[in-house]
Amino acid sequence: MGKTDKKKENMALMSMRISAEDKELIEEKARKTGLTTSEYMRRCALGRKLPCYGDTGLLREYSMQLGKIGSNLNQIAKHLNGGGDFCSVYYEVKEAVRELLDLKFKILPALEDVACGKKRRRKSGKDGES
């Protein structure tokens, strides 16, 4: 008996009733992840990891922006720890906090979109940045 025959021997057939709309949605999500419908449903039901199929480039971009903000904050901390005057860096701190808040409201929906497989359109801001 071959390896595939033994594997099939251990398999059980399972069926369920779902609406035509739900069937289409499940099949579409399975296609987007590159999995068969059966494998997709097994992974979902058993809480196993699914392949990511959203726009991860947007998250990489936000990660780079967070790195730049972190670098700026480190420079400010170095200045202050060296006895520098807070008033001289107040506006830089205020700008860094504003950038962090802006990113917070961009990252959360982007994370949700990656999990749900949606593509977000990048909006150009000032200086051509997203």
Task: Please explain how this structure is put together.
There is one protein chain. This protein has 130 residues and is mainly α. It has 2 domains: 38 residues, no CATH class; 70 residues. Helices cover 65% and strands 0% of the residues. It is built from 5 helices and no strands. α2 packs across α3 and α4 packs antiparallel against α5. 2% of the residues are buried. The C terminus is likely disordered.
Radius of gyration: 24 Å
Percent of residues in helices comes to 55-70%
What proportion of the residues form beta strands (DSSP E)? under 5%
What is the count of DSSP helices, taking H or I runs of 4+ residues?
5
**Low-pLDDT residue spans:** 124-130
H/E element order: HHHHH
Number of domains: 2
Ends distance: 58 Å
What is the overall shape? elongated
Biggest sheet descriptor: none
| Overall mean confidence score, pLDDT | 80
User: How many beta strands in the DSSP annotation?
Assistant: 0
Structural class: mainly alpha
Itemize the secondary structure elements and their pairings.
Layout: H1 3-9, H2 20-33, H3 37-46, H4 56-81, H5 90-116
Helix pairs in contact: 2-3, 4-5
Question: What attributes characterize this protein structure?
Answer:
5 helices; about 65% helix; mainly alpha; about 130 residues
